[in-house]
Specification:
The protein is an alpha/beta fold and 447 residues long. Helices cover 34% and strands 22% of the residues. The relative contact order is 0.09.
Length: 447
């Protein structure tokens, strides 16, 4: 974050200072006081069950020098009526101050956002100082927090943008108009919230509509709903994917014994080989999106493919590790929807092993199609795994779809007990569910 005194912050957000207004914030803003850095700003929210203002002293002990909140605290505080609005205004102000020499990339999609963001961050950071979303902090609070991590040295700012409602992404692009807008796909994530894929497409298209003048839209050539978004901008469009007409085309995909992809990317008549240290064929398409975005940001294709080899993913996303029993664990437990679960099952099937076990939990926010979608995933899993272990009553339709290959268990403890009793050397086990199912606890118990 650029250095700002508390008095300057108050002037920007329309607040009043309680305490020493000369205190200068020099480090990023945080919502969790335990994660404050020396010189940082603690943003306090008064929630239904927890009041962040009560943790100001804790933030101070961790290094925070000031608070942005709705009432005074023991630390010097900028007091505002609406902490969320003030955080967003502050973030927009900071990035506006840095705009000369800063390229902003916005990225969205129904699945693959975080993985593609991680890949793109690896490419851009190999060329110049880069700030990118940590994990999946992609909402109305996470995006401004990421923006506030930028400073005078930052040359690339990568912002993952999620949406649960129409207008969510438009709100985010209102804080900063991206120079490059990447739309990965229109899938079934949050279908229960949006109601239809057409509405999801409208929500994702807000990123393209929000481009800065002359900005480039980077669109998935393999997804008709995404390609149609070229009509939403008068600026340049760059496409990626397997399609013959893609501007950045992925060719020659092959997987090694651990399911790690190698392939060739072709753009503007040039070709460059790429190999990823990540599991899953779907990562190759994510990599082509990252390479296309990098091209739009001025990074040559060969430099992009070289940097892709150094990429790593955020936690609980396609993490492959060895277990003490000699089995391998593929931990993809951070989140799930029907499309991402199928991709994870394909990755499981690609890994060499004696036996493949898919541990699957509920996929949330699928609306009235939930039971049918779970059953269909079960059918798909039966074709990719030797055993399909379902966890929790809400996941039972997966077991119904998987038929004879299914083992339906009541909860995480039962799943851990079953796995410990049945996994053997040479097995490969996938753990996958929506975040609310908390199957990361199963993965942690095994590892």
């Amino acid at each position: 974050m650029i250095p700002l005194s508390l008095g300057e912050i108050a002037a920007v957000v329309g607040g009043t200072v309680e305490g020493d207004g000369s205190v200068t914030v020099t480090a990023p803003a945080v919502l969790d006081g335990r994660h404050a850095e020396p010189g940082g700003l603690f943003v306090a929210f008064a929630g239904e069950h927890v009041d962040g203002h009560d943790y100001a002293a804790q933030a101070g002990r961790a290094g925070a020098v000031a608070v942005l909140g709705t009432r005074p605290t023991p630390l010097p505080t900028v007091v505002v009526e609406d902490a969320r609005a003030a955080l967003q205004v502050l973030a927009a102000h900071v990035v506006a101050r840095l705009r000369d020499g800063l390229t902003v990339v916005g990225l969205t999609g129904s699945q693959g956002k975080t993985g593609t963001k991680d890949l793109l961050a690896a490419v851009l950071s190999s060329a110049a100082p880069t700030i990118a979303t940590i994990g999946s902090l992609n909402n109305e609070l996470g995006v401004p927090l990421t923006m506030l991590r930028a400073d005078a040295a930052t040359r690339f700012l990568v912002l993952e943008m999620g949406a649960r409602h129409i207008g969510d992404i438009a709100e985010l692009t209102g804080l900063v108009a991206p120079d490059v807008a990447v739309v990965l796909n229109v899938g079934r994530a949050h279908l229960g919230e949006f109601g239809s894929r057409e509405v999801i497409a409208e929500a994702k298209g807000e990123l393209v509509r929000g481009l800065a003048p002359g900005g480039t839209a980077v669109l998935n050539a393999d997804d008709p709903r995404v390609v149609a978004m070229r009509s939403l901008t008068d600026g340049p469009v760059l496409t990626f994917g397997r399609a013959e007409h893609a501007d950045v085309r992925m060719l020659g995909l092959a997987l090694d014994r651990l399911g790690r992809p190698s392939f060739t990317l072709r753009a503007d008549g040039a070709s460059a080989p790429a190999a990823l240290p990540l599991v899953g064929a779907h990562q190759a398409l994510n990599a082509s999106a990252a390479a296309a975005a990098a091209l739009a940001a001025g990074i040559p294709l060969e430099a992009a493919t070289s940097a892709l080899a150094t990429a790593s993913l955020s936690k609980w996303r396609m993490e492959l590790c060895d277990l003490a029993c000699g089995a391998k664990l593929l931990n993809d437990s951070y989140n799930a929807n029907p499309d991402s679960t199928r991709a994870a099952l394909d990755a499981l099937a690609a890994i060499e092993g004696r036996r493949r076990v898919a541990v699957l939990g509920e996929m949330l926010e699928l609306g009235t199609d939930s039971e049918a979608e779970h059953r269909a995933v079960g059918q798909y899993a039966a074709g990719r795994a030797d055993v399909v272990v379902t966890v929790g009553e809400a996941a039972r339709p997966i077991a119904d779809g998987a038929g004879e290959r299914a083992v339906a268990l009541a909860g995480s403890d039962a799943a851990v007990d079953w796995l410990r009793g049945h996994l053997a050397a040479g097995d490969v086990v996938l753990v996958k569910a929506s975040r609310g199912a908390r199957l990361d606890e199963v993965a942690a118990a095994l590892a």
